[in-house]
Amino acid sequence: MDDGRPGEFELIRRYFAPLAKDPGSLGLTDDAAVLTPRPGVDLVLTKDMLAADVHFFADDAPEAIAAKALRVNLSDLAAKGARPRGYLMGLALPADWTEGWVARFCNGLAADQQAYGVHLLGGDTIRSSNGLQVSITAIGEVDTGKAVRRSGARPGDILFVSGTIGDAAAGLHARLDPDFSRVHDLTQDEERHILNRYLLPRPRTGLAGPVTGFATAAMDISDGLIADSAHMARASGVGLSIDLSKVPLSGALQRLKMNARHEFMRCFNGGDDYEILASVSKDKAAAFQKAAAAAGCPVTEVGLVEEGSGTVRLHDAGQSLDLSTGGGFRHF
Amino acid sequence: MDDGRPGEFELIRRYFAPLAKDPGSLGLTDDAAVLTPRPGVDLVLTKDMLAADVHFFADDAPEAIAAKALRVNLSDLAAKGARPRGYLMGLALPADWTEGWVARFCNGLAADQQAYGVHLLGGDTIRSSNGLQVSITAIGEVDTGKAVRRSGARPGDILFVSGTIGDAAAGLHARLDPDFSRVHDLTQDEERHILNRYLLPRPRTGLAGPVTGFATAAMDISDGLIADSAHMARASGVGLSIDLSKVPLSGALQRLKMNARHEFMRCFNGGDDYEILASVSKDKAAAFQKAAAAAGCPVTEVGLVEEGSGTVRLHDAGQSLDLSTGGGFRHF
């Protein structure tokens, strides 16, 4: 190109083609990817779109932006019990993109491809009308009929979550307010932890097996535990009861819970957790917990499925909490 | 929402869910779509991303923007010989979006879903950091092993194109320059034709069958006939020879060719045609042409595949033309 930056085909050759190891990608030299489905599997398809200054900061490390764009999709696959197979990526580059930025972005993808066993299958690169946008469609595989939906929770089931809740939202607040950690007395380690959880989701791909093996319903937590519990409750036509005192919290969130209750609830409901919420029938609960721990993704019992019609009750060691003040995070 | 516009879930319920008739979409109420592949088929996956003021004008009719975003993907499927099955859509809405705009956009999708037999499977709606962007991933099916690639053209094959070439690029120029039609003496009908071809690509989905039945290589023409011929020539390791006097032209382009040779070449190479370029072995050429006509997408012989290494020769009734001046359209 006149400005010395590589054109689209040169970008593909230098940076994207090395990410496309699946023969179905046709080396990114064709109009489309061609996949031969393995016999006995369903394909699980998910698409998340991320925009600068909405889902990440434009000056975040390019490697981290790439990882986040891929991981939020892998999180959706894990929640359905699907093993990642590949992804297509649409990349809208702002006017001032540089080759160095693209190189680092692709390094981030390469590292995650290796970590999660997934390959680039195809995509499109365009000039953005303004800021950077990344649109990834991820494709996973699950044994035929075994995809786990949001709609299968039944009264009597036990509710589990993976990891800890609220860290990413706290990390976002710490990012936006340089005084956040000082005001709330967080240690350096605690601050580092929450900032990192905002920057880099950790999709619980290890839970795909335990989820298909044992869960009656599952979803990933992106809008906040309470908001997403309501989604599951509505899809399943049940009520969910969550005991806040059982929800696993990092050191940072425990400190917030003690010292700044309002701030805590804001983070707790803030979303971007990318943990798994799953319901499991009582007789399989112990086996689920054991399988999850064995997969390196321990899960914690946080509540129960009850009769109901899409309602969520939150209580803290027996005391009812008012949910009207804390909505989930809106990505839109 | 505070501003009276529907939130994401309300948008899904009112506008997107009615487009999601395939049971695999799970009514758009889950994290992902689940598809059970039909036995004996490969899946063809393609992703094109369109941005306001890059691929369309922000003030184009919302129905037309929707149609274009879907159709450019259907064109890729047709070029591989795949029948459309469904699509996922990422929609990044600008700050000033209105519910009426979304309603019209979805009307455009609904009309094309009916026309092309395809359904919405899933997606994501986000706030754009600036202008409207639409990212569609389309999924098609083709009998196992039958997807047609760019790389199969062999010396001796005959080259065909569908439709006419150069109209969309001329339509773009007419859009950008209100004097274009007057200066080039186009009739009102001719002007209407080129404007419409820019606004609304016509994916040659009817050619999917003839392409898998007879073509050795195929692709859709989005970067311009010459630029895309070069892509096919490189992928196939051959040379292509195109006879401009045989390339089908609309009345508008014929007039440009006669009266304004430079402008003609600019449109001819301008891209956005979304016609099919296919190579067919000599002994199947007549059958291909017959099958295409029967499918309602007549094709025209425009040249030959020769020995070569990625080269394209353009001549006009025997006279060699210099290609160094006319590159394809860059979407990036």
UniProtKB/TrEMBL annotation, chains A, B:
Q: Which residues bind Mg(2+) 3?
A: 31, 76, 220
The PurM-like C-terminal domain is annotated at 154-311
Q: What class of enzyme is it?
A: transferase
- Sites binding Mg(2+) 4 sit at 31, 46, 76
PurM-like N-terminal domain ranges (all copies): 30-142
GO MF terms here are: thiamine-phosphate kinase activity
Tell me which residues bind ATP.
123-124, 150, 222
Respond yes or no to whether keyword Phosphoprotein is given for this record. no
Supply the EC number(s).
Answer: 2.7.4.16
Identify the residues that bind Mg(2+) 5. 223
Report which reactions are catalysed by this protein: thiamine phosphate + ATP = thiamine diphosphate + ADP
Task: Cite the entry's keywords alphabetically.
Answer: ATP-binding, Kinase, Magnesium, Metal-binding, Nucleotide-binding, Thiamine biosynthesis, Transferase
User: Pathway, per Swiss-Prot/TrEMBL?
Assistant: Cofactor biosynthesis; thiamine diphosphate biosynthesis; thiamine diphosphate from thiamine phosphate: step 1/1
Pfam families in alphabetical order: AIRS, AIRS_C
Annotated residues for binding of Mg(2+) 2? 48, 76
Under InterPro entries, the record lists: PurM-like_C_dom, PurM-like_C_sf, PurM-like_N, PurM-like_N_sf, ThiL-like
Write out the residues that bind substrate.
55, 272, 329
The answer to whether the entry has keyword Cell cycle is no
What else does the entry mention about this protein? Reaction mechanism of ThiL seems to utilize a direct, inline transfer of the gamma-phosphate of ATP to TMP rather than a phosphorylated enzyme intermediate.
What is the recorded function of this protein according to its Swiss-Prot or TrEMBL entry? Catalyzes the ATP-dependent phosphorylation of thiamine-monophosphate (TMP) to form thiamine-pyrophosphate (TPP), the active form of vitamin B1.
Instruction: Report the protein name in the record.
Output: Thiamine-monophosphate kinase
Source species: Roseibium salinum
